[in-house]
Amino acid sequence: MQDDKAMGGDFGDDTFLDVVLKAEADAEVSMMARVMQAAQVSWQAAAWWLERRRQADFALRRIELSGPEGGPVSVSHITSGMDDHERAALRRLLDEAIAERITP
Predict the structure, then answer these.
(1) What is residue 13's predicted lDDT score, i.e. its pLDDT?
(2) 66/70 Cα distance (integer angstroms)
(3) Are residues 50 and 75 in the same domain?
(4) Read out DSSP for 37-57?
């Protein structure tokens, strides 16, 4: 293993790893201070902090459903007992819900 001088510097009693870990910790404290300062005027900064520090309570949750072997989910069993009128009504509701999600 190379000594500290061979790594490009004299780190005193600290090792190169100690210096790197301290620099990373200092950077983390600095960035967190900026986020907390921004949170005073920006709800987005506050939300960002909560999503990351209190994930169980505030993180966005993505739920993904899939059918057998990762394929699409089949809804044929749901619609099999419906008549044409009921299927058309369901299609309209689904189309409206999709349009609401993609319209800004």
Answers:
(1) 78
(2) 5
(3) no
(4) HHHTT-HHHHHHHHHHHSHHH
CA 42 distance to own-chain centroid: 19
Q: What phi and psi, each to the nearest 5 degrees, are found at residue 59?
A: -70, 145
Range of the structural domain that residue 4 is part of: 1-63
Same domain for 58 and 71, yes or no, is no
Whole-number pLDDT of residue 97: 87
pLDDT for position 104: 57
Residue type at 6 in one-letter notation: A
Q: Is the dihedral of CA 79, 83, 87, 93 positive or negative?
A: negative
pLDDT averaged per 10 residues, the chain (length 104):
55 85 94 92 91 88 80 76 90 88 68
**Residues 23, 39: one domain?**
yes
Tokens found for residue 70? 């990762």
